[in-house]
Design a protein that fits this description.
The protein has one domain. Helix content is about 20%, strand content about 20%. The protein has one helix and two strands, in the order ββα. Strands 1-2 form a two-stranded antiparallel sheet. About 0% of the residues are buried.
Length: about 60
Amino acid sequence: MTKLLFDDSPKVHVNWGHGKILGSGMLGTHSCDMNGESIGMAAEVAHDSCTDLSPARK
């Protein structure tokens, strides 16, 4: 599991959906081995640009 904490203040990056990343956390066996891939995918999910996951059910 990967979690990213964004700054969503309207002053930061008005044209983007989110501001800068304030922090992150990872949990799981061998999570340090997948650090770059996992944080990159979490950022894509937050910006609605991830093509590796199926759409969320409503």
